[in-house]
Write a structure and sequence with these properties.
Chain lengths: 120, 853
């Protein structure tokens, strides 16, 4: 199969600037409100950024942005601060429970700004 | 199948073991069991009786699993004595007048302490040392006594002497024979033991026969000896040997040994095949056994024989013993006196260090027959195994007891030389083979092995050997014995602490680059954060440390189930000014927080949203409050009782001590949280023995207890040292805490740390009180540096704009988290339940949208 540019996505994706990159301490996360949705945005110490849902399905609390980030067997993860399940920062997949995953969002750094799209 | 009626007389250590063995076989052999128990409580650990004085309660000593009697339908006749056996009708008569029929009768009546015929023993304050009640009575009498004397210098007598000594009495031991422990030790061994015990301040009088006890002049009693000398004493404890309790059997016409004991055959049957006897009351092959291990074997043999295993036989047992008497290691193995005709002795004496060792070997120098060890008994396990398994002696048998020579051949035999049949734990009849198969089946820690095999769970003497076998087996399986932190570090917390401290490493990045791999995770990051804090005490929210912190440390508050936080200001020692109480109330009212008194003498304010935390803390700090570190793996509180200032029983000012201690160690980061308490007297209202550090006032100063725990698995603290003054107390706590912080595992409370520490409390005592590692000054200096650099984290946080920026829910909005919903209960807020929140949330959501737009 040949890769096609995803035209429809490019059209409807709406990017929202949420903060300066320097507002996020390296290797931690913040929570951004984007179109009424809570998005956990993480900045790793190599400058890369990731965005997933802030809602922790295990505790039903909006807390994932306050978890510790790191890697487990090569996967980039955040650990929920409440019951400590790990979520893959790239796919949203929960490592402890194959049935559970959280939404991931597009995020990038433009100049000094972190911009997020809630279209996944 | 008809149920066989079994009646058991005596629910002591052996009677109980028999019941457990019997019910484990009752699937194939249904039984109906009645047990007579003359004491007012069911079986307890008599071997550990003395620990009753060092803080263990009767229920700590309990040996009966919860619900045991109910579960197995056993009728327990507590406090009821069997008074007669009618063998003709096969019934047992109880003291309450009932006749109980039996098919099989089991006698486990134990023994009673022998009290020599001395005039005056009917005096008050003359005791024996056998049951919990005896110890309770001794404790009461000791409270108002100065001098205590034990008659009998054998094993039990010396144990009783230790107890009196620990109760603070000037203690004497009076022995009829010419040396202490005449049964186990030879003259030289006995002499050395005597020196050691005298050095502790216990007076020893040998070759003394007590003639009469009369009213004393300086003390309550005066003892008159056959040689004309006298001794004044307040309390007398008789420990002049034990006699089998065979009266009931004798009256029933069962055959009794010349010097007592119910005669039994190899199946533990008496001359009436329907009646068995076991434990200390049983006489097998002309021998009485005063130890639990042979009794346990008899219990198993009886249960097997009774349930149809006709060939179950008691093979006789070894009487070797290893003990710690008044802090002195003493062991006797096999033919300790060298009675075998051609036996030869090797003796090593080091009077300077108080060590005496003797080997008894066969005339052809091929086999070890026995040994005596005083002052150092580390080799007990291997020497015992050599004796029992007839392992050939090395070329120079003396090497077994000589201190290891530089470059000399390794001592003794390796654990691998033992045959599988070697009995490692004699208390619980566990062989090396048994341990190895349990290890192969997955019991790969000492804890798991203990649980699966019961090895090392009674007297503990076999503990070191069990550990050696475990390590050796794991090595053979190719398993490295490791407790690595996580996949990012091939080091334990202890090793990492050392590397960090010695390497002067100040950040996670330095540490992971040098000693680890990857980015780290939620296991190693907080652990390293704790290590860094303990080593260098830098502000935990510095940008380089902040990402390592668990959310609780990151926001300096405890996260609750709904993502809000709780606030616990420090209230040192639980002492609080009315003004400050009012401030707490006002702040709680202003921010609408739920308030509760915690289980640890302070006040918790719940339901603070993350953005409110700095506002709340600003008010608290202004009013003089500091962080209570309820969120940290750090010192929590030092609980106090009101103490001598107000309480009519208090003997020291426990509140002042608690306040000082809390202010000294506040903020100290450690492998897990730390709790402490100070009680003003032995009534222990502050529950200090349930804390990591427990301090109890005495007339002379303070008793320091360590490694207690409430929580998941409660553990009473161990007494580290008695009657010390304020300065020594602080010095020892400094050393203890720093030693734990250096060596503890991640999330290991002091209780599990101690339980896993080789050498246990004695080792800690050596390190802390005797400075055996020469680390004392360094540990104290580390602590002083910490104390001097303490700063309140909240005070720092509210004055640091960079840190404050992080206290918001949204990085791009002032709105609160709409998912946080409270409802009212008993006049305060609480998080809404799922079914309550939907209506509330839609309201809140609307409000929030308004804020955003
Ligand atoms: C607030 C409090 C209950 C209360 O309303 O009274 C409490 C609350 C929590 N306890 Fe506790 N414990 C509280 C007193 C105790 C006590 C009693 C005491 O300290 O005198 C104990 C038993 C004593 C002990 O620790 O030895 C206790 C044994 C535990 C344990 C079990 C620890 C153990 O070693 O087995 C945990 C779990 C853990 O730490 O891993 C725990 C954990 C917790 C956590 C941190 C659970 C969690 O992760 O959310 C709770 C949150 C604290 C918070 O403020 O939000 N809590 N907890 C008490 C706070 C006391 C304080 O002022 O600091
Ligand atoms: C202080 C102390 C320290 C010790 N230390 C050690 C040690 O380190 N190692 C070791 O191996 N051993 C040690 N022992 C010895 C050990 O405790 C005994 O060997 C063991 O308890 C014997 O168990 P038993 O069941 O035969 O007797 P017991 O435990 O004495 O139990 C017999 C029970 O039967 C009851 N009874 C008697 N007659 C009747 C009746 N007619 N009706 C109803 N009930 C009756 C008694 O009241 C008693 O409760 C120690 C003993 C003491 C006292
Ligand atoms: S422990 Fe002692 S001082 Fe404290 S309240 Fe109880 S009796 Fe009083
Ligand atoms: S030998 Fe006593 S517990 Fe193992």
């Amino acid at each position: 199969m040949t890769a096609r540019p995803n035209v429809s996505m490019a059209v409807t994706q709406e990017w929202v600037a949420v903060c300066n990159l320097s507002d996020i301490v390296p290797d931690t996360g913040v929570c951004a409100l984007v179109h009424g949705r809570q998005v956990a945005v993480f900045r790793l110490n190599d400058g890369s950024v990731y965005a997933i849902d802030n809602y922790d399905p295990f505790s039903s609390a909006n807390v994932l942005s306050r978890g510790i980030v790191g890697d487990l067997k090569g996967e980039l993860v955040v650990a929920s601060p409440i019951y400590k399940q790990h979520f893959n920062l790239v796919t949203g997949q929960c490592l402890e429970d194959a049935e559970v995953s959280v939404a991931v969002f597009s995020v990038r750094v433009e100049g000094d700004m972190v911009v997020v799209s809630t279209n996944t | 199948m008809k149920k066989e009626k079994i009646v058991v007389i005596g629910n002591g250590m052996i009677g109980q073991r028999f019941l457990e063995q019997l019910v484990s076989r009752s699937a194939t052999h249904p039984v109906e069991i009645t047990v007579f128990c003359a004491e007012k409580r069911p079986a307890y650990d008599r071997v550990q009786l003395t620990s009753f004085f060092s803080g263990k309660s009767a229920s700590d000593l309990n040996l009966v699993p919860e619900g045991f009697f109910e579960q197995h339908g056993i009728a327990l006749r507590l406090g009821d004595k069997a008074v007669a056996i009618d063998r003709e009708r096969k019934v047992v008569r109880s003291a309450r007048g009932h006749d109980l029929p039996y098919d099989k009768l089991v006698l486990a009546t134990g023994s009673y302490p022998f009290v020599p015929k001395v005039q005056g023993t009917e005096w008050q304050d003359c005791f024996v040392y056998r049951a919990i009640e005896d110890l309770e009575a001794i404790r009461v009498a000791a409270a108002t006594a100065k001098v205590g004397t034990v008659i009998g210098g054998g094993l039990l007598g010396l144990e009783a002497a230790k107890a009196l000594h620990d109760l603070g009495l000037k203690t004497h031991v009076v022995e009829f024979a010419s040396r202490l422990m005449a049964v186990q030790l030879d003259d030289s061994g006995g002499r050395l033991l005597r020196h050691k015990i005298e050095a502790l301040g216990v007076a020893v009088h040998t070759s003394k026969a007590t003639k009469e006890i009369v009213k004393g002049e300086t003390c309550r009693h005066k003892m008159l000896f056959a040689d004309g000398s006298v001794l004044e004493t307040d309390i007398i404890v008789f420990s002049a040997g034990i006699r089998p309790r065979d009266q009931l059997a004798k009256a029933a016409g069962l055959s009794i040994g010349e010097r007592g004991g119910i005669a039994v055959n190899d199946h533990c049957q008496t001359n009436d095949a329907d009646i068995y006897a076991l434990g200390e009351c049983a006489l097998w092959s002309g021998r009485l056994y005063g130890l639990v291990a042979p009794g346990y074997q008899m219990a198993e043999v009886t249960a097997r024989h009774l349930t149809g295993e006709a060939d179950a036989r008691f093979p006789g047992a070894d009487m070797s013993t290893k003990l710690k008497l008044l802090g002195v290691d003493v062991a006797s193995i096999g033919d300790a006196h060298g009675v075998a005709p051609d036996a030869l002795n090797y003796v090593f004496t080091d009077e300077a260090s108080g060590i005496y060792k003797k080997l008894v070997v066969s005339g052809d120098l091929k086999r070890l027959l026995g040994a005596v060890l005083v002052g150092e008994a580390d080799d007990y396990g291997s020497l015992l195994q050599m004796t029992l398994n007839a392992i050939p002696l090395p070329e120079h048998p003396e090497d077994l007891i000589l201190p290891a020579r530089e470059g000399g051949a390794s001592k003794g035999m390796g654990i691998d030389a033992l045959p599988d049949a070697a009995l490692i734990c004699s208390c619980n009849n566990v062989s090396k083979g048994g341990l190895c198969s349990a290890i192969a089946a997955g019991a790969t820690s000492v804890g798991a092995l203990k649980k699966n095999t019961k090895a090392a769970t009674s007297c503990g003497g076999c503990g070191p050997m069990v550990k050696q076998i475990l390590d050796s087996e794991l090595k053979k399986q190719g398993v490295d014995v490791k407790n690595y932190l996580c996949e990012h570090f091939d080091y334990s917390r202890q090793e990492l602490f050392h590397l960090t401290r010695v390497g002067g490493l100040k950040t996670f990045d330095q540490i992971v680059t040098k000693h680890g791999k990857g980015r780290g995770c939620d296991i190693c990051k907080p652990a390293v954060a704790g290590i860094l804090a303990a080593c260098w005490n830098e502000f935990v929210l510095k940008p380089k440390h902040a990402p390592l912190q668990d959310t609780n440390d990151y926001y300096l508050a405890n996260m609750q189930k709904d993502g809000t936080y709780s606030i616990v200001p420090r209230v040192p020692g639980g002492e609080i000014l009315p003004e400050k109480l009012i401030v707490l109330g006002e702040v709680a009212k202003k921010f609408g927080l739920y308030t509760k008194i915690t289980g640890a003498q302070r006040i918790d304010l719940f339901g603070a949203r993350v953005e409110q935390l700095p506002l709340i803390w600003k008010e608290l700090v202004d009013a003089g409050f500091e962080s209570g570190h309820a969120y940290g793996k750090a010192l929590r509180t030092v609980k106090s009782c009101v103490g001598s200032t107000w309480c009519r029983y208090g003997v020291q000012d426990s509140v002042t001590m608690a306040v000082n201690i809390e202010n000294r160690y506040r903020g100290l980061r450690s492998p897990h949280k730390l709790k402490m308490a100070v009680s003003g007297c032995t009534r222990e209202c502050a529950e200090a023995q349930g804390k990591d550090v427990g301090i109890i006032a005495t007339e002379k100063g303070w008793n320091l207890y360590i490694c207690g725990n409430g929580g998941i698995k409660p553990r009473h603290a161990d007494l580290l040292v008695k009657d010390i003054d304020d300065a020594t107390l602080v010095k020892y706590i400094d050393r203890f805490l720093m030693f734990y912080i250096r060596t503890g595992d991640r999330l290991q409370r002091t209780s599990t740390w101690l339980d896993n520490l080789e050498g246990g409390i004695d080792y800690v005592r050596k390190v802390v009180c005797e400075d055996s590692l020469g680390l004392g000054a360094e540990l104290e200096a580390d602590m002083q540096r910490f104390v001097d650099s303490y700063e309140c984290e909240w005070k720092k946080a509210i004055n640091d704009p960079e840190t404050l920026k992080r206290f918001h829910h949204f990085v791009n909005s002032e709105a609160p988290d709409s998912n946080v919903v409270f409802v009212a209960e008993r006049g305060q807020i609480r998080p809404a339940r799922e079914d309550e929140r939907d209506d509330e949330r839609s309201d809140a959501r609307e409000a929030e949208l308004e804020v955003v737009t």
